[in-house]
Amino acid sequence: MGFQKIANESDFSNKPMNKYDIGLLEITIVKYKDQYYAFEDRCPHMNSALHLGQLEEDHIICPLHKTRFNIISGKKETEPKIPVPKFIKMGRLMHNIKTHDLKTFTVKVENSEIFADI
Fold first, then answer.
1. What is the 3-state secondary structure (H, E, C) of the chain?
2. CA distance linking residue 80 with residue 74, whole number of Å
3. Domain 3-117's class?
4. Which residues contact 14 (CB under 8 A, 6 or more apart)?
């Protein structure tokens, strides 16, 4: 589809992270060290909303199972933490769900407008 306008730099004056809906696609944009990074808002493990997670420098931590992703590369850096006891069958089933890297998008800024290549 190419670059589409997603946000304005003024959206980040009070907070470093915002979620945007672009059609059916949910994108989170993070401002980190005066650069903008964009990624799909849904965790590739169990579909949790990442914009509700914790931002730690250049990492987003999923609010559901605490998987840690690098917002610049999209790489998964930790495995999910499944709090279900092992003796419960569902815990064993969920433990085997593969977690992929985040889908990231190239971002550019023109005239204080933020565009992502979606």
1. CCEEEEEEHHHHCCCCEEEEEECCEEEEEEEECCEEEEEECECCCCCCEHHHCEEECCEEECCCCCCEEECCCCCECCCCCCCCCCCCHHHHHHHCCCCCCCCEECEEEECCEEEEEC
2. 15
3. mainly beta
4. none
pLDDT in tens, 93-113: 555 667 789 999 999 999 999
Would you state the structure tokens that stand for residue 21, as one six-digit string? 């809906």
The residue extents of the domains of the chain are 3-117
**pTM of the shown model:** 0.84
